[in-house]
Amino acid sequence: MTMITLALSKGRIFDETMPLLAAAGIKVxxxxxxSRKLILPTNQxxxxxxxxxxxxxxxxxxxxGADIGVTGKDTLIEHGGQGLFRPLDLNIAKCRVxxxxxxxxxxxxxxxxxxxxxxxxxxxxxxxxxxxTKGVHVDLIKLYGSMELAPLTGMADAIVDLVSTGNTxxxxxxxxxxxxxxxxxxxxxxxxxxxxxxxxxxxxxxxxASAIRKD
Length: 215
Ligand code: PRT
Ligand code: MG
What we know:
- The chain is built from nine helices and eleven strands.
- The radius of gyration is 19 Å and the shape is elongated.
- By secondary structure, it is α/β, with parallel strands linked by helices.
- Helix content is 33%, strand content 30%.
- It starts with a strand and ends with a helix.
- It has helices spanning 12-23, 57-62, 73-79, 107-112, 124-134, 149-152, 167-171, 191-196, 198-211; strands at 4-8, 39-41, 47-51, 68-72, 84-89, 95-102, 117-121, 138-142, 158-163, 174-183, 185-190.
- It folds into two domains: 4-93 and 184-214, Periplasmic binding protein-like II (D-Maltodextrin-Binding Protein, domain 2); 95-183, Periplasmic binding protein-like II (D-Maltodextrin-Binding Protein, domain 2, 3-Layer(aba) Sandwich), CATH 3.40.190.
- It binds phosphoribosyl ATP and magnesium ion.
């Protein structure tokens, strides 16, 4: 029996991947929100799900801790994508990466003046590339959570963060001043596994492909 290991993270990625798994005839038998197990069984004895931190999904798949995984394009870009095939844009967990500032900060003025901007973000690769293309000098401050706090405390002029409804920005008196890119989650596959476990992986990839919502 060839075991297939799928890496997922709790929350929106897990929730939005369930209908795609159902299309492949796979049902996860425990709820990751209540279970303490890190390895969840499915109704298919040769398919299991490993629950990892969202930012660790590409790493697990890269090093073969999982054969396949579902990860945000944001996370994939920051990881670099080494050792991964990326056969499908799943069109789930959609959001955008944007630049936001305090609503009393004149971003346009700062940019046209050629000021050096202090930018706090978890997405240093995306931010560096974006501001370099724009020709804006930035000092990047790497954070791991709650980017929204950085401009409020005066630590940064701007943040680069994910935005979905915009409610989090609004609640913290921040405004979105630039959209950098649209984000969705992708299926990633370990390159060696795709050769060694071609048949069962093909079945999952094809089922996911046929179940992707087009909108
Ligand atoms: O939360 P944790 O630190 O454990 O890890 P994580 O934030 O990496 O994981 P998770 O599960 O929150 O996000 C996983 C993936 O979901 C991300 O990599 C994105 O690709 C995708 N996604 C889609 C989002 C959002 N929408 C989203 N809105 N990830 C995070 N958010 C956060 C955002 O960072 C901000 O704090 O929600 C807040 C903004 O939401 P709105 O609706 O108020 O704009
Ligand atoms: Mg989060």
